[in-house]
Request: fold
Amino acid sequence: MLTALLGVLGLGFLLGMRHATDPDHVVAVTTIVAQQRSLLRAARTGVLWGIGHTATILLVGGAIILLKVQLDGIPPRVGLSLEFAVAVMLIVLGLLTLAGGERRVADSTARPLTVGFVHGLAGSAAVATLPQVALIPDPRWAAGYLAVFGVGTIVGMLLVTVSIAAPSLFATRRFAGMNRTLRIASGVASIGFGLLLAHRIGFVDGLFTTAPTWTPR
Reply:
């Protein structure tokens, strides 16, 4: 039994690392990291994002486990609203990046924490209702799974931010004006992805219609 539980926890760590590579996560972090001028600060951004994300997963996902809330017990409009918050955040993040000039707003601790927290809020129901969690009868072990999943997400996002920041830092140091170009490109990409996400959630999935359908992602 213990071996099986440890195996599930190990799987949770790997799934957490994979979770960090979801497109909306990468776009949000790229928008922040594009303004960094230090690989160490970029890595710090990834870790802070992961901590914010993990905090929400533990708070909301833990409550779902303890209260034994089933997936079909979560109203579709609530789930879609949480995901829509991510779309709005990506748009706002892009606008702030475009309006930021040459200010290194990414040096802020609050920004990556907040971005990670919002992403975690949207994905906590999906994580807490994973089949792996359902296989764990003890709520304490299930909460442990969420914690390990969160650690995997932190490690994964650390690797993602470093892999994004390294080539961009090399380019900005080698070519004058590249930093401004990357900042603008990341801001536009964040706004564009946020608008596409908002359209899908609002009209394809039906948040703004009379028949919403929600599949946790």
Remarks:
- The chain has one domain: 2-204.
